[in-house]
Amino acid sequence: MTAGVSQPLPPVEVTPAGLDRRALIDGMMQFYIYDFSEFEPAGSDAFELNAEHRFDPYPLDDYWRDADRHPLIIEAGGRPAGFALINAVAHSGGICEHSMAEFFVMRKHRRGGVGARAVARILPMFPGRWEIAVARRNAPALGFWPRAVGALDCVRDLRTVEMDSELWRGPILQFEVIDPV
Ligand SMILES: CC(C)(COP(=O)(O)OP(=O)(O)OC[C@H]1O[C@@H](n2cnc3c(N)ncnc32)[C@H](O)[C@@H]1OP(=O)(O)O)[C@@H](O)C(=O)NCCC(=O)NCCS
Fold first, then answer.
1. Which among 8, 14, 27, 124 is placed 20 to 30 Å from 42, CA to CA?
2. Model-level pTM?
3. For the chain, which ranges sit under pLDDT 70?
4. Which helix (H) or strand (E) holds 123?
């Protein structure tokens, strides 16, 4: 394998995923889970391959059934570069309209601004109260979210609460996204 030379930044698009693109999210999800397996202690039973030599499928059904869940595809230069899953689960135990359940940028596209530009497209699509919970061990995400969210004009009252409860251990970003119209 050879590494490519650097290219100009490709345009980043975010589109709602129809059911026809569920398999794409399912496929990328395997890489997402693999990335998360890095944060698991080696002795743990979690994040092991199943009898089909894959990680267990992520429960995606609700994302095409519930009105407050949104599956999104991130494309860079017209090619799949990641995904976002949005729901309304507040890990703080409070109330929010939107929560970033999962967010993923494929490794080839990282550190080129794809994630930040995707967030800049996603948040204005969903005005209201947001939460983004970040796992304490996930150093890239700890660096990414305050930067990506804090840069946006549509974000108000951004604060970070440190949680150490049964619901969540780690920082949760809480903010309001104002309606662009
Ligand atoms: C976290 C993630 C989404 C970042 O995506 P990305 O496209 O690489 O992010 P960007 O290039 O837009 O980065 C924007 C800024 O975030 C911060 N950042 C991004 N990756 C970082 C890292 N690995 N370490 C520290 N800061 C980081 C930097 O400030 C960066 O700006 P810079 O490159 O000018 O320094 C990506 O690494 C990923 O998909 N990781 C695996 C899944 C995951 O952890 N998702 C988050 C779940 S909460």
1. 27
2. 0.95
3. 1-7
4. helix 114-125
